[in-house]
Amino acid sequence: MTATVLFIGGMDSSGGAGILRDTATAAELAHPARVAVTAVTAQSDTRVGAVHPVPPEVVADQIAIAAEGALGAVKIGMLGNRATVEAVTRTSPDLPMVLDPVLASSSGRDLIDAEGLAALLDLLLPRLTLLTPNLPELARLATALGHAPDAPEAEVVATLLARGCGAVLVKGGHGEDPEISEDRLYHAGRVQPFRASRHRVHLRGTGCQLASAIAVHLARGASLPDSVAQAKEMLTRRFARAVAGQG
Questions:
Q1: What is the mean pLDDT of the chain?
Q2: How much is the pLDDT for 246?
Q3: Hey, what long-range contacts does 239-243 have (CB within 8 A, 24 or more apart)?
């Protein structure tokens, strides 16, 4: 039996990100999925109109019932507040766990409050196999950890690892190089770069897709570096299709 991936996160009404992007990624990889919805949002590519958190006890129930089946990995996205972080930490099974730190929407609205972020760092971080922040998210995490927002990347990552995180993949999509986007995997005492050409096209949900694909490959038994490499290849194909006008 194929080990299912459990996706925990918010429902994006536009379908661009969140749980719908997670399940679409799993479907493209022909992998079964289960979900636990943490919030229902009304949003588009340009704005967030409303956010309705799912009660934490309902989040916990969704996870508990999903875990009755054969799970192989967990991918977590939007959490929103401390009560939800606590519910996810308490009920998630002890499996490879990937967290895409959804701190704000693409349009700039905060999607987790200060207490929720503190709980994420205190309670959930030590359980993670992989954390996947982009550069703006890393700057916000730096501030929450007591660093300056422009602290050196390696310094912030070292703090995350010292606090129990298994590995950190810093995504370079917001980097300054106009030709190359470089992600960096901090894992097992080394830094492994993953480079791809930068495309002149904007896509939503790329962070969700990358983390989801990594979780799928971990559930299939791939190593963390191989899971990242295969997920990056999938994302590169999506960008290539977009450039070619194929969606």
A1: 93
A2: 65
A3: 239/196, 239/199, 239/201, 239/203, 240/199, 242/199, 242/201, 242/203, 243/199, 243/200, 243/201
